[in-house]
Input
Amino acid sequence: MIDEIGIDGFKAATPENIWYNGAYTCTEYIQQNTKTLTKNPLYWDTDAKLFDSVTVKMVESVDTAYQLYTTGEIDRVDLSESNLTTIYNNESDPLHDQLVEKRPTKFSYQFHFNYDKHNDDQSEDTNWNTAIANEAFRKCWYYGLDLGSYYKRTNAINPYKCYNNAYTMQGLVYLSDGTEYTSLVQEKLGLPAYDGETMTRLDSEKFEEYKAQAIEELTAAGVTFPVHARYFVAGGNQTTLDSANVLKQAFSDSFGDDFIVLDIDSYVSSLSKEVRDPRRQSFVINGWGADYGDPQNYLGQETNDGDNAYYMVAYGHAVDNESEELNALYDEFTELVNKADAITDDLDARYEAYADAEAFMLDHALTIPSNFDIGWELTHINDYTKQNAMFGIQNLKYKNWETSTDAYTAEDYAGFQETWNAGSAE
Output
């Protein structure tokens, strides 16, 4: 293709002169509106079931998408908390029996701290940077921040399905005896078994102990309270603003307004250019989905020894914090990750070593696990016919999907899940 259209031609390539080897070609793209994919007659998998065309609509919020769904303009929609509860609590609503719970996405979400926060004038935010470098302060987040109300923003019916206790996504890899990797991490952390109704890591006694320790140590270091944590959302997106306000209330209820206060701010169009690059945020809640099936793809994003550690380089900046204690922790964590990475002849030993590294990171609250994405939807698509890998990009393929003119019902989905589970057991 480069020989045919040249380097400058490639930089300016349009859908008409890009070469394709996938199931579809892009036949139309309208910025911030739609993109149309058309079946590729030369696709290598001649037995695959493909749509003649797929139109992807770009919308600014789930509320807009919901309106498009109700008018028949799109075939599936994620539901906001308000839309879900309105339909769920009204059995006479025509959409009530069509409510279905989504399968978990492949993403594990965490609180990613910025250890080198700047003010708007690019001066150092010493108060925040000193506070977040303190382990007792971070452990207050780990043991004290109750996210139950925040989970309802994703899943108002079964909120604690969204509860996350690890950094790596559940189901990524398994040991040879069938042990799921993140359960090993939780075992090393000594966490109680998940009960489906609470955040099992919450511990009021430990929270109060670490709060007292943090206030004593940080006051001596010149930190003033309350510590303000700055959190950014997209401007003009009411759904994300509503979620941020729920999170703000969770901070208030969990920490008390005299200890940590969440300040909500907004950016216009680019989180990276307006917030991340100038380091204005105190933290982000962000998710990672693995590119390949190994814990290294998760933990390698947090090490402090190279430019390929995405979260450390783009968000965390711990290497720029002046705390020797913080940097010593990251040095030790990085050493544990590299030790695990060097084990290439025994997967069980490799996973065991990675679990040690992950448990170390979480035990010192260098990041805080947040949530899984398990929401509810209305849909004309059988999700159990989609590819469902915990790594890679194959889940994005519009291939071999089963669809229906009428929306699927909860009863339909119960049958799909039963068939899927039976097949998995075999």
